[in-house]
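Dear support,

We are seeing what looks like truncated structure output for some complexes. This example has four components. We would appreciate it if you could run it in full and send us the complete token output so we can diff it against ours.
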Amino acid sequence: MKLTCPIEKAASFLGAKWTLEIIYFLQEPRRFCELQELLGGINPVTLTQRLKLLEAEGILNREVVPDAQRHVEYELTAKGKDLVAVYQDLSMWVSRWYTEEAH
Amino acid sequence: MKLTCPIEKAASFLGAKWTLEIIYFLQEPRRFCELQELLGGINPVTLTQRLKLLEAEGILNREVVPDAQRHVEYELTAKGKDLVAVYQDLSMWVSRWYTEEAH
DNA sequence: TTATGCTACTATAAAAAATATAGTAGTGAT
DNA sequence: ATCACTACTATATTTTTTATAGTAGCATAA
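Here is the complete output from our reference environment:
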């Protein structure tokens, strides 16, 4: 695929399974196991892979928090947060077309 | 996954491979073979499957046009067109973050 | 100090999805 | 009659995702 169009550039990772939901749930910082629960059964292998991909794309940051029990937090970068606006539109689209019966 | 949140409802098909690009290119009605070319090498099996899925979701219509050489056109429904607005936002996000060098 | 639990993963094999490649069927033009 | 266009389907292979189990560090409880 020729990557001349901007949508196509983004589609390679935005169109991957789980990406949509991951970014959605990262509207607040989350831990790995939190994401696993929120996403309702995503495989840890897939989740790891997707988080690495989104980190590489500059959408999120992985941060090791050295508290009592050391843990890892994933949070959106500025670029990722800016993308959430798009999801808010998506959310409105869904409420327009899915909240009531037929359209 | 509990389907309580609107994004999750939509994510099952919006988050499938190629869906993003298909809807993008359907901003104008397209034929099967046109989509194949535009999408740059999507497998016809996958394309057929995705078009059926999006038709079932009410995002697009499949129409047989009985012209000289009978052909098929795929075009967005009102619901699908309404979704394009979301993609326009996505497009702006991409131009903000991808047109220039680092951010 | 052994056991148990939490967190963040990795390993492996199996299942599901996407792909490459070839082929079919209808129609029209040469 | 042959070739070309369109819209697919068939089949085998590759890639991706999944289920399931396990590892390793640290902390609290017994």
